[in-house]
Amino acid sequence: MVKKNYIYILILIIVTTLALFFSRKSPNIKEIRFGASLPLSGINQNLGEEVVIGSSIYFNHVNAKGGIDGKKIKFIYFDDKYEPEITQTNIKKLIGKDKVFALFDFVGTPTVKKVMPIIKNSKIPFIAPYTGASFLRNPKNSNIVNLRSSYKEEIDALVDYLVVNKKITKFSIFYQNDDYGKEGYIALLSALKKRNLSLQSEGTYKRNTLFVKQAIYDISQKKPEAIILIGAYKPTARFIKKARHSSLKNVIFCPISFVNADALMSELNNDGKNLLFSQVVPTYSQNTQITKEYKKLLKFYYPTHKPTFASFESFLAAKVVVHALKKSDGNINESNFLYNLKHSDKNTLGDIKISYKNTQLLNRVYLLKYSKGKFQLLREKQ
User: Fold this and answer.
1) Rounded CA gap, 163 and 171, in Å?
2) Residue 24's pLDDT band (cuts 50, 70, 90)
3) pTM of this structure
């Protein structure tokens, strides 16, 4: 009797496991679903829209050619207004209702941090989030694959350039008062300590607001020579505009990649004076095979839309993802997909070489200035 019960329980476990497996996989038989939560309204709307555009143009291109082994890619995305609570609702919907194959193109540090327990527990592939947060770079989280370099690398590259090339020693920081801003703050303290320097002053603003007046006052008290900017594009632009009419008018303003350089320049009426940008992808104005492909597809699907760093980065992410799917040779599953991503050929993106280390595929930082209507490379750091 005990033996029969044992066999019954074993069969029940097997049947239940298979049922869960096929309920998870069945929606992807005819299509491969990727899901995102990102800001499509509110103060960071432009960034979310650019990320969707960049990925969509490449997925549409692949689908027009028949998809992957006859399966079309479906990109499902929801607006979270850059609010973590909404992100949590969205990710549950993507996994539970839409049964996406992988989570892809999520935007924002505070939003992603809110759903980290779900990402860890579900073990679903979490690919190319648009954030350089350190908590996404723990090798123990084997289902997370980043495309971009970290905020720590970006800020270290900025500080190194300013210290070595500009002989600057007085640094301050303007940052969003949440997990995103704290990531930048900690990274800056580390970069300064490595060079026997200390932070002069700091100013903050609340996420999804434009209240920067107090930050300008707080920072200006110590008369910095450079200010690292860890914010969204609208409040950052307002900060720069107001700072330029204060005692901070001659400092060097240093926005990191998440600030959204193209939208920032639009807000500043293309005035690039005293701006030093860090980016995690090279400028799209280069005349390379990969930039030509990006701009050709962008023009085809969005004829009036201009190239941007954000859409270029998400285009590159989509291209890497498709390459990993194609390497599955018809056996598309999560483990194969993650393995293929982590073992992507270095020439997958042409002139932009990739190599999986530190949980990320791109490991370079590009420092640029904005002059004569375009971004110009000053230094590339690996």
Assistant:
1) 10
2) very low
3) 0.91
